[in-house]
Please model this.
Amino acid sequence: MTPNTTGDRRPTPLLRPDFLRLWCATTASGLATWAMPFILGLAVLHGSLSAVGLGLVLATRTAGFLVAVPLGGLLADRHSRRGVVLWSGLAAAVATPVLAAGLGTSVTLMAVAAAVVGVGQGACRPAFQAMTAEVVAVEDRQQANAALTFSVRVVTLLAPGLTALAATVTGPGVLLLVTAGLWLAAALLPRGGSALPGTVRERAPFHTEFVEGLVEARRHPWFLAGLAALTTVIALGYSATNVLLPLVSRDHYGTEAVLAGALTAYTAGALVGALLMARWKPRAQGWWALFGLGLYALAPLSLAFPVGAVVVFAAYAVVGLGVELFNVPWFTAAQREVAPDKLARVSSLDFLFAYGFAPVGLALIAPAAQAFGPEAVLLGTAVLCAVVPALAALAPGARDFRTRHGRG
Model:
C-alpha cells in the first residue's frame, strides 16, 4: 500500500467491509466456476453423464458466457453494478440445481441450465471489475486487484483437490448444489457502490451504447494494443500448451506427473506474482506488464525441446509469475483510465476478446499439430507470444498504461 503522508493509518483494502465482501463474492464465484467442469467430469466417471454430454454441457455454458459478457457490461453501465451482480449470481444459483436434476435423466435439460449458469458467470465479470473501482480508492486499487487475482489462483490450486475429496463422501449432484450455494453467496455478499451520473440520463438503444464502449476503448491505444497481445497469448499460446502439454507429458516423459507438476508450478508462480504486485509499483509499469505477458513464450518453448522435467516446471513457474505481472497493472490501469460510466463495457470487451477466441484456438491447435508437427506449432506460438506483446509496447501510452490526452 502506498505510504500515507498525512499521518493517519488507513486500513488495507482487504480490511474494509465493502471490499472484503466483494473479495469474498468474487472468490465464491471463482470457486463455483472452476468446480463445475471438474464435478461434471466426476459425473462421467460415475456413469451419470456421457463424454459427449459433458462436451455439450460445457459448450453451452461457454456460449452463455460469451453472449452475456457484452450484455452484462451494458447493463452494469446502465444500472447499478451491484444489481447486475445480484441478478447474475441469482440466475446461476437457480440454474445449478436444475443442472443437478438433469444428471442421468436429460442432457438437454443440463445443457439449457448450463447456458444459464454461463450467462450468470459472464454477466457478473465486468460488473465485478467495475465495482472494484467504485469501492476502492485509486491509490489502493493495485493492491485490491492483487488480492482478487490471488484468490483466483488459490481457488485454481485448491478447487480440484477439495472437490475430489468431497466426492469421496457424496455424489456429483450434491456437489453441484454446493456450487449453487457459492453462487448465492456471490450474489448476496457485495455491498457499496453508488449510481453513476450516466445511470439517470435518458438511455440510448443498446447497440448505440455498445458502440460507445467501442469508441471509449479506441480512445486508449495502449488498451487496444494490450488486448491484442492478451488475445494472442490466450487464443494461441494458452491453447497450444493446454492441448499439447498432456501429449508431451505422455510421449516425452512417459508419465502424467509432468502435466500435474507443470500446472502446479504455474499456479505457484502466479501466487508469487500476485503477492509481488500487491507491493511493487515499478516505473514503466506498462512495459513491465507486457514483458510479463511475453514470458508466456517460455511455456511452449520448454515443451518444444527434450529438456528435463525440472526445466519445464521452472518455465511454467516463471510464466505464472509473468501473467500476474501483467494482470494486476492491466486491471488497475483500466479502472484508472477508462471513463467510469463506460468501464463495465470496456471491461466486457476485455473478457470477450481474451476468452472468446480461446475456443477457436483450441479447435485449431490439434489439426495444426497433425499437419505441421507439435514442435513447429509450439515454436510458432512461442514466437507470437514474445513478438506481439513487444509490438504492443510500441503503442502510445503503453509505457505506463496511460492515455496521454486525458479522460475528457
User: Anything to note?
Assistant: Residues 1-8, 197-201 have pLDDT under 50 and may be disordered. The domain at 217-392 is CATH 1.20.1250.20 (Growth Hormone; Chain: A;). The chain has two domains: 13-139+160-203, 217-392.
